[in-house]
Amino acid sequence: MTEKYDVTVAGAGPAGLACALSLAKAGWRVAVIDPAPETVLASPSFDGREIALTHHSRDWLEQNEVWDRIPAGSVSPLITARIETGQEAPANNSAALLFRAPQEKSDALGYLVPNHLIRTALYETVREENRITILSGKGVVASSGNRDEAITLLDDGRLISSSLLVAADGRFSRIRQMRGIGAIVHDFGKEILVCRMRHPEPHDGVALQWFDEGQTIALLPVADDGLPGHLSSLVLTLDPEEIAILKAMDKDAFDADITRRTQSRLGSMSLESARCTYPLKTVFAHRFETTRLALIGDAAVGMHPITAHGFNLGLRGQEILCEEIARGEGDPGAASVLRGFEKRHRRATAPLFAATNGIASLYTHDAKPSLALRKAGLAIAEKLTPLKSLVTGFLMDRDHAA
């Protein structure tokens, strides 16, 4: 027996759920497929990731009745972004590149929100939409498309027929591979450890990105109802062997090690969460579409975490897809619709992907010429007001047009 829907979305992560919600609100009947059981989708566990939402992304979440489902006490305004390089913490701001929101527009560059809370809020919203059917605990084993329909075979033997299949199944997308779409995969040969750390000194809403020699450290301000300003998300990039050692350390040894690595900037650090690790690989698909198939989220573009903008690009990708569908003539999987989506989304992501990888490669290479270039680059950029205004506008994404 074949089940029929207008659109099938494979992957119930943030991009997939957002896409399903957008499509349903436009009147389409949508099936969402994910191998995770419903209990996991409804209440995802802490994964260490803090998402830097732009103003545009927050507006989308508000307009689609998702934002109010996120606990207000878990939202941390990002007041300042600070970028440094070198082993020694600068005594003043002369060696740091600073970005702040223009006072006439906003008091925040963006908003840091735990990834698992965004996923929970999206799932709760999607579950209440009667045009969406969630097929949890089901995997995709085969996918094909022809002139008239997309066919998806599930691991329980069911066939799903729809006008369009949207792959939102992550940066190592099986559906992308099934359909013969290659990808540029940049393996940095590093791993990332993320966790929450408590500290006695306040973070003052500052997000620090520190390209130290031999390691990259990010400290992101995390909201905390109990003691505001004294909890940060640590994002530490190291060789896999070092990450494995850190993950296996007992708490006291780990606290001491992180305090040393951060040079006691915020005082003695104390672990407050699970330690989560991820391989550092970026992905850019050769194509974002083929017959009756569109790629969104990390299946299309898996960004380096240096920008903390992966979620925002995933959200924007599904917006572009839904806008192109709305411009079409009633067939969400029409070739003209998918070509329009491909063109716009590639234009929005390719320059950023290339620039981010280039910057990350330069600022994590510790040869002496690179170290000197890194320091000189930050000093010059700090004095270029037009450049800083341009980057600030990108970080905030307040008046977006694509």
Automatic annotation (TrEMBL):
* Annotated ranges, domain FAD-binding: 5-343
Q: In which pathway does it act?
A: Cofactor biosynthesis; ubiquinone biosynthesis
Which SUPFAM superfamilies does the record cross-reference, listed alphabetically? FAD/NAD(P)-binding domain
One Pfam family of this protein, by short name? FAD_binding_3
Q: Does the keyword ATP-binding apply?
A: no
Which InterPro entries has this protein been placed in? FAD-bd (IPR002938), FAD/NAD-bd_sf (IPR036188), UbiH/COQ6 (IPR010971), UbiH/COQ6_monooxygenase (IPR051205)
**Which branch of life, at top level?**
Bacteria
Which of UniProt's keywords are assigned here? FAD, Flavoprotein, Monooxygenase, Oxidoreductase
Question: Which cofactors, if any, are listed as required?
Answer: FAD
Q: Kindly give the NCBIfam families that the UniProt entry links to this protein.
A: PRK09126.1 (NF006593), Ubi-OHases (TIGR01988)
Identify its protein family: Belongs to the UbiH/COQ6 family.
The protein's name = 5-demethoxyubiquinol-8 5-hydroxylase UbiM
Originating species:
Asaia spathodeae
